[in-house]
Amino acid sequence: MVYYKTKEEIELIRQSCLLVCKALSEVGSILKPGITGLEIDRVAETVIRDHGAVPGFKGYNGFPATLCVSVNEQVVHGIPTEMVFKDGDIISVDCGVYMNDFFGDSAYTFPIGEVSDDVLRLLKTTNTSLYKAIDKAVEGNRIGDIGHAVQYYAERENNYGVVRELVGHGIGRSLHEAPEVPNYGRKGNGPKMKEGLVIAIEPMINMGKRAIGHAEDGWTIITKDHKPSAHFEHTVAVGREKADILSDHTLIESALDKNPNVQAVGVF
Ligand code: MG
Ligand code: MG
User: Fold this and answer.
1) Cα–Cα distance between 230 and 168 in angstroms, integer?
2) Residues 244/201, Cβ–Cβ less than 8 Å
3) Does the predicted TM-score (pTM) go above 0.85?
């Protein structure tokens, strides 16, 4: 069942998404070598609760934290730990908020300190693939057009691995609603989109092969070949002419511009 949102509901989702990005920008402002996943998780939770909202992931299917913190070869769903981040790590931070009955969801992958050019290219390509996908989130297009945009750019043009097993999703009163939004697909395939559909688009792109596995904690997804993986996510409302991006990574990137330890990723 797909729930189409009213303009008022979309504004509530936007408020939740902006709080997610506020939490991610606070995280971005303190990230540096030597800090831990648990420390950034506490910061994010405080920001969210100080705004009268609730962390969207904590307790979801038993997930124990506010943030999914996925380091290097970890793709998504990493649990924050005491392990310190090192110079050259990439940290995918995924955050959800529940406020005024609606969820917001967004993710950004942060390069810590000096990151190799190869890995920075992976990040920037993944982020670029997200915006190419968002360009397709227009009334009349199909969900397959979104997946095709990511897959064509990341796989065909850049020879990276596109994770198939985990997908984007509708979002609203539930964190995960129909439809599923895969990062692969064929043009003109899948459900047709119309105004009022709100979806989280979240390419997960591997530097090597697309194959993934589960870590022993039962949550963390890792690349089979242990090469790095990147993840960027926006929540967007499908529009008649263009998509309305409800989350805002400029909040995160302006915080990073003031943090000498982490550079903003940007797009090609
Ligand atoms: Mg997310
Ligand atoms: Mg999501």
Assistant:
1) 14
2) no
3) yes
